[in-house]
Amino acid sequence: MYRTLNSYLRQRFGCKVYKLALDGGMTCPNRDGSLGTRGCIFCTGSGEFAEGGTDIAAQLERAKQRVAAKACNGKYIAYFQSFTNTYAPVDWLEALFTAAMKPEDVVALSVGTRPDCLPPEVLDLLERLNRHKPVFVELGLQTIHPETARYIRRGYDLLVYDEAVRALNSRGIEVVTHMIAGLPGETRAMTVETARYIGQSGAGGIKIHLLHVLRGTDLASEYEAGRVPVLTMEDYIKTVAACLRVLPPDMVIHRLTGDGDKRTLLAPLWSADKKTVLCALNRALQDIQQGEAL
Ligand code: SF4
Q1: pTM for the structure as a whole
Q2: Domain count, the chain
Q3: How far is the CA of 45 from the centre of ligand 1 (A)?
């Protein structure tokens, strides 16, 4: 048993809420040469479902059509997913986010970014917007272990994450932290340490991803050279269960599976069968309680 995103959103907004994945057209300091040019080792940069194009109103409409079959009487969260969505001049960000939050049926804004891309003027902007409608900031921490962070080329230290969470919380902005299970060189115990840390860090929500090896990434080369093992479904489920047991009971679990792009997924291939994975996960998680091992 765990606190699902669905139940949290229903409680907060009084109805079913769907995410509309939008593309702000930004890049990332890990790719544009500021910190690096090849990005994190696993990253293709884009969100699988993000709508592209510069016209935000048009993107919102197209994204709504994508979820139309399931979204009756629902509300929406405008979600900037691809790359680093605070990596631009603040005036430009203000226009972008304001346009995305404008429709009445958009009840919140969610911004995926890096903790080292939150300068004071961007924090001030997010604080202002948060007074209008709730703003969530999603931070890609992935791991607390410095050797893994170096290997995946994350490009910032854990202290930077801590400081970003503190700054966002002090402005009343809810943080959702991403972590990855199955990172090269990490044992299950190390992954659980990351979950425990995130649970104590001030984040209100968490996304637990499975490490996907996607074609065209440096991780794919490592995998093909036999240097990177991937988790079996059983291992992944045991790891997720162990993570949930150390997370505070009130932390919102935004995600327990990754949405790797099936067209580029190299491994693990079992993860492409989302229905089977979710069934197996739900069965296994019936026997555990979020926070029971705190
Ligand atoms: S995972 Fe995020 S921070 Fe890393 S290269 Fe990709 S967009 Fe940049």
Answers
A1: 0.96
A2: 1
A3: 6
